[in-house]
Amino acid sequence: MELSFLRPLYTEGAPVASVYLDTTRAVPDADERIATRWRTARRTLAEQGADDATLEALDATVGGVPDLSGPQGEALFAADGRLLGAFTLTEPPAADRALWTPVPDPLLLAFDRDHQVPHVLVAVDREGADVEGYPAAAHEPAFRRTFNGSTLHITRVRAGAEAQASFHRRTVNVWSENTEQAAQDVRDAVDAVDAEVILVAGDPKAFGLLRDHLGPLAERLVKVGGGRTDAQARAALREAADTALHEISAESHRDALRQLESALDGDQALQGIPAVKEALAEGRVDTLYMAPPTATQDVPLFTSERNPRALATDRAALGDDPTVFEAPAPLLLLRAAVLGDASFSEIQPPTRCTDGVAALLRY
């Protein structure tokens, strides 16, 4: 997963407020519950030293997505009276969190985003298609197009042999023309959201024609249940798509772990905080691998505002730089990865990676 979406969180030199809240709306009295959670988080930030201007910037944003059904969470970041970022989480945090720290804490956000797959959702039939493109972690499509083509001679008829053959040819031609336009919409959607997968439901014949028209993109097709006939069919499509995306993400992480294991065997990767921090400082990390924080969260490292990619286990190693400060290792490793244009992947324990940290190297 690319980490560039986190870069705006590191533009301020001031301390940063990082807030994670359960903002699920599909419960009774959701507004009141969210407001209560935020009051508690706000009080915690104030006790840690957060300034009024920063708290007010969060006041204006907190609340989640009102029309999003199902569980959701929210990650907010603010500093020096300015909102740095607001993100919807696909799952609420296990517990609300509010931190006022020298650097932001986007770890939970990174792990949540790492499981999201940019995709195109297609419901296709003989008449056309509904095409939606979803960027990673988006709850609404960034691309949406509906096409209903010709329906003339769309139904095959019983007739004499010659007439029947003629009607069948016309039917196939209409289906092909309709799915050709649908295929163009799919291409546009893939480009719009940089989709990794195309999930398609609907008429089997139309699916086959769509696959033929998509050319090389056909290798990204995954057939799922549901369709476009009515609300029930569309709901079934969304449910089937979510199930498929979950498995696609899981398989992607299994592939990433296999790649890491192979790279470790071939000396093209490193493991453990000491080795990884040095590689990050030198700009040699292609992908930072991290297990969900546990005990590693409490391991401290030192860095500075002058050189944020330089990490050390001893303050003295960074000289007499007055901007040196201490923070949990995972926060500083992630910051160094973001600023070094590295990618990110979660590794699920158990893993042989020391400290739950590893890095695939650039060559």
Mind telling me the C-alpha Rg?
Answer: 25 Å
Order of helices and strands: EHHEEEHEEEHEHEHEHEEEHEE
Question: How large is the share of residues in beta strands?
Answer: 15-25%
- Separation, N- and C-terminal Cα atoms: 19 Å
Tertiary shape:
globular
Strand segment tally: 15
Identify the strand order in the major beta sheet.
7-6-5-8-9
Instruction: Name the average pLDDT.
Output: 87
Instruction: List low-confidence stretches.
Output: 150-171
What is the share of helical residues? 25-40%
Oligomer: single chain
Structural class: alpha+beta
Question: With helices defined by DSSP (H or I, 4 residues minimum), what is the helix count?
Answer: 8
Biggest beta sheet summary: 5 strands, mixed
Describe this structure in words.
There is one protein chain. With 363 residues, the protein is of the alpha+beta class. The protein has helices at residues 30-48, 52-59, 107-114, 161-193, 204-214, 231-265, 273-281, 329-339, and strands spanning 16-22, 73-79, 82-89, 97-101, 119-124, 128-134, 143-148, 197-202, 221-223, 269-271, 285-290, 300-304, 324-328, 343-346, 357-361. Helices cover 37% and strands 23% of the residues. The longest helix has 35 residues, at 231-265. It starts with 15 loop residues before the first strand and ends with a strand. It is globular, with a radius of gyration of 25 Å. Helix 4 packs across helix 5 and helix 7 packs parallel to helix 8 (329-339). It contains eight helices and 15 strands. A five-stranded mixed beta sheet has the order 7-6-5-8-9, with helices on both faces. A four-stranded antiparallel beta sheet has the order 3-2-1-4, with helices on both faces.
